[in-house]
Amino acid sequence: MRHKYLLSVLLAAGLSSAALANPYETTLKNGLRVIVKEDRRAPTAVQMVWYRIGSMDEVDGQSGVAHVLEHMMFKGTPSVGPGEFNKRVAAAGGKDNAFTSRDYTAYFQQIPKEKLEDVIQLEADRMRHLNVDAKEFEQEIKVVMEERRMRTDDNPQSKLFEQMNAVAFQAHPYRRPIIGWMNDLETMTAADAKAWYDTWYVPNNAYVVITGDVDHQAVFALAEKYYGPLEGRPLPIRRQQIEPKQEGTRRITVKAPAELPVLIMGYKAPILRDVEKDSDPYALEMLSAILDGHDAARFNKKLVREDKVALAAGIDYDSTARGPGTLYLHATPSEGKTVADLEAALRAEIVRVQQDGVSQAELKRAKAQLIASEVYKKDSMFGQTMEIGQIESAGLPYRKLDRMLEKLQQVTAEQIQAVAKKYFNDDALTVGVLDPQPLDGKPRRPAAATRH
Amino acid sequence: MNTAMTRLIVAAFAFLLTQSALAGIKIEHWVSSSGARVYFVESRVLPMLDVQVDFAAGSMFDPVGKAGLAALTRATLDNGAGKLDETAIAEQLADIGANLGGSADTDRASVSLRTLSARDKRDTALAILKDVLQAPHFDAAVFEREKARTIAGLKEAMTRPDSIAGKAFWAALYPDHPYGRQATPESVAALNRDDMAAFHARYYNAANASITLVGDLSRQEAEKIADAITAGMPKGQAATLPGMPEQPKGGQTRIAHPASQAHVYIGLPAIERGNPDFFPLLVGNYTLGGGGFVSRLMKEVRDKRGYAYSVYSYFAPMRQTGPFQIGLQTKRSQAKDAIKVSRDILDAFLKEGPTAEELAAAKANLIGSFPLRLDSNKKILDNVAAIGFFDLPLDYLDQYQAKVQAVTAEDVKQAFARRVRPENLITVTVAAD
Fold this sequence. Notes:
The structure holds 2 protein chains of 2 kinds.
Chain A: H1 8-12, H2 17-20, E1 24-27, E2 33-38, E3 44-51, H3 65-72, H4 84-91, E4 95-100, E5 105-112, H5 116-128, H6 134-153, H7 156-168, H8 182-187, H9 190-200, E6 206-212, H10 216-226, E7 250-257, E8 262-269, H11 280-292, H12 298-306, E9 310-317, E10 325-333, H13 339-356, H14 360-377, H15 381-393, H16 401-409, H17 413-423, E11 429-437
Parallel strand pairs in A: 2-6, 7-11
Antiparallel strand pairs in A: 1-2, 3-5, 3-6, 4-5, 8-10, 8-11, 9-10
Helix pairs in contact in A: 3-9, 5-10, 11-14, 11-17, 13-17
Chain B: H1 3-16, E1 28-31, E2 37-42, E3 48-55, H2 69-76, H3 86-95, E4 99-101, E5 109-116, H4 119-134, H5 140-157, H6 161-173, H7 185-189, H8 193-203, E6 209-215, H9 219-230, E7 251-255, E8 261-271, H10 278-290, H11 296-304, E9 311-315, E10 322-331, H12 335-352, H13 356-368, H14 377-389, H15 396-406, H16 409-419, E11 426-430
Parallel strand pairs in B: 2-6, 7-11
Antiparallel strand pairs in B: 1-2, 3-5, 3-6, 4-5, 8-10, 8-11, 9-10
């Protein structure tokens, strides 16, 4: 969860009731939701189109198709030729790109505000009229394979993360990499991408978020004009795929050319489903901030600075998602320390929270950082647009963002100690280790006593 | 490419692409009572303040045999300063939600602070900033720890194909200039605490500093802050620059590596900050490899042939002659073909320049995208800090669009002919078959 709207600071300045309605929202007859956040600080705007479709909706043998289709979305429609989309955005003085996650696929343009209509027209066109041309596909699939080589195959940490998730999840589709297994990319056809598009790219499976120096009524009218005529269609039933309960620690090792080992410990963790009733995800967010929220937070202070067992140590937890949650601890050992030393040190820090809890000063500090980050976040229009889009993709209403912030501010030290006891459970743990290999295949020099 | 270099290039990009026309970015400039140059933009939209202090104290000033000193000095500034140890600094900043950052690249060592503008928070944050700038402890034990972490990071980088290629590229471009010197595990291991204290004493002074403030405060407050954070700072002397880099003899460096993809860099030393050739190069490079998805390199290497996910070219003007660079990654077996295609595209561009249509498209984007370059305090800070640090004219942003607009196809051809001579081009490959 990326942190949310600030109430205290900005509301204290006294906003009018009209401003309280911001962001504004409408739903077109075809089911497309349009959310507009007015932010008039600069004469620019951001449009993002979010499709509720990601790699978790793929099936075995076709991993990566959501991302491949994202690439194909730039390859033209009957009225906009291949490559023409980028060209028109560039001509408008804009920047554009797209990204695919486990949960969603999103497309964006950042433009001078007077060009908003141009990019609304372009996105509406490719929402229903994409050409999935076989020749274009043949080239683009090679680009995606190069992307996989760059991001994963030649990146030891990414490879470790990929293989760890394939072990941590057995039934749930989060076990598959977003970019897809190389063999699935090799056998993928234009027809696979076309079928994906035809099934999922409809207005009732999408929402548009627009932020910037715009008038929401004018944007609604543009949305009606361009997105309005597109036809909705019922979506296939999505079966819920529930990961069976993990019953024992899983361990994997990945060997790759590198100097430093890496340790990742992934614990199954809760996801926020009900903003009011759930409490554990908020407590885990605050615990994460106390362990790894600043340079003197517990991990860096104890493991890196005092004990020098780690070169770096961190925590990664996202409390919002469509699928199941994982809390990752990750670290790299110092020279002369083993991965086993490091695992013991990370575990000791968790035990310290379980036994002794956290101090009021630590909790207060984490909350102060949260308040400040709410102000800093408003420096980026793109960031604000992302925040709305992401929370919606996880099935939570963006109108609850401020309520979630309040909930975070209400977390107590007792709750943090309780979630530390509940979720750092060895039976729900997957441990991944990167075992570094010399580049030339020869044994590493003895000084690197870093192997376990 | 090492991270400092990456940061430098990202910063250069942000600046390169910036244009003028937005009335409202009013830069105020004065010299503080300590003798530091100050640049200020008032922005009242959000209750926050950014302060960046830049020193000419980047890695180009590493003494011979002490490569890595500038970076390590900058990295340890906030590991204890004034009356506070490193833990107290981090905790006090966190207590008020302030962020202290910055780094050293080849030219510049930066310290940046973002804080809420409420007086109590702001004053606490600025007091810490002052100590970090002026009274770092360089504690011996902390120094040894950070040295060990730096060495480990350098060893790790020496296993990564992109880092290996980046280091080899800079070394080949600048064989006899500090820009080509690289920190190594050995050079960092030889550093001691006194080296750092001496480097700090020489370069972290008022005459060698520029201060940029953006945010929720008045000119009067900005003046007070600039004076306060540099009060007691020695005036000192501005850094002395080495001779300008010379053009290298062109050639190819091939480095073996087990990666599945080859990393390819092609380039040469091209241009320094403030040189008038910058605008024709900027406009021309948009067509060649700067214009994201619409550049010639992208169309030919990625779209038509599927050789690479990422392919680009850029000019990175620096204090002294910064590089022109083409970069791509491709399956190791097709590196040769990808290099040939890229070279053919470059050669054709050098010969013919952009078409009328390409020139118009480049200008439309560079001029039209102007508002996007300055639509946050962070972007304004980056731009104004660069103007200050590199002594660019205060109306640089105001002139920008007109300068882009004035570029002709012939200007592009001539500037490229002057700055990109094929006989000086260096090609570095890592993991190519």
